[in-house]
Structure formats: C-alpha cells, structure tokens
C-alpha cells in the first residue's frame, strides 16, 4: 500500500500567465504562485497544481468539475465574466448551454467550458 502524506491533481497549460488570469480573475479562485507553476485553491479545501508544459496538448476530457448550488446562476456568472459554455453535437442544451440531465432522469444538470489552454471544465448541479 502507498504511504502518502497528501495528494493533489495537476493540469498542464500552455501559458501560466493566461491560466492565472482565467482561474483567478474570471473564476475567482485563489491562485498561489510558486517556482514550478500555480496552485489553485479549490472550494472545499482541495488544490490543483497548474504547470506550463512545453509539449502541451489540451485535455480531451473534463479535467475539473465545479459543483454548484444553482447551475443557471453559475452559467450566468460565467457568461458575465466572458466565459461561454460549450455545445456538443447530439446533446440537448438549453438556451444557456446547460444539459438538463435531472429533468429526464439521466444524470446531473451540467455545462462545459474551456480554460485559455483548451482544457475542459464543467459546472454541475446534482
């Protein structure tokens, strides 16, 4: 068994400056700088290490999920900050870009957006 003193996730980006502005400025997270990258302070006490990668390729999957109490309000806050929700072909998005899974008994209400490097992030309401 692995003996560990803690754990955290990491996410590559192509620009630390753009990541700092996006995660701190647009999403309102606390961002700590360190010599190797950025540490994002996530709601609930977790952290995410963000590092600049010379061979960066955006995550082709949802790399970070934010649970929200009111997804409609969260989508409006993102839009006000200049962040647009993604629309995926074949999914039933409402006018704001949210897939209302709860209404049809098929999962949470969810919306996706991208950081400046193209990594996929979601907001979801269970």
TrEMBL record:
Pfam families for this protein: Glyoxalase
Domain of life: Bacteria
Residue ranges that the Swiss-Prot or TrEMBL entry lists as coiled coil: none
Domain VOC: 4-126
CDD domains: VOC
UniProt name for this protein: VOC family protein
């Amino acid at each position: 068994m692995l003996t560990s003193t803690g754990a955290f996730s990491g996410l590559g980006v192509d620009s630390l400056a753009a990541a700092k502005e996006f995660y701190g400025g647009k999403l309102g997270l606390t961002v700590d700088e360190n010599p190797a990258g950025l540490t994002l302070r996530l709601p609930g006490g977790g952290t995410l290490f963000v590092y600049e990668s010379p061979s960066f390729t955006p995550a082709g999957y949802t790399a970070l999920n934010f649970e929200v109490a009111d997804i409609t309000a969260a989508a409006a806050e993102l839009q006000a900050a200049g962040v647009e929700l993604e629309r995926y072909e074949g999914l039933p998005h409402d006018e704001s870009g949210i897939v209302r899974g709860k209404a049809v008994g098929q999962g949470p209400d969810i919306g996706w957006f991208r950081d400046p490097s193209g990594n996929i992030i979601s907001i979801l309401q269970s």
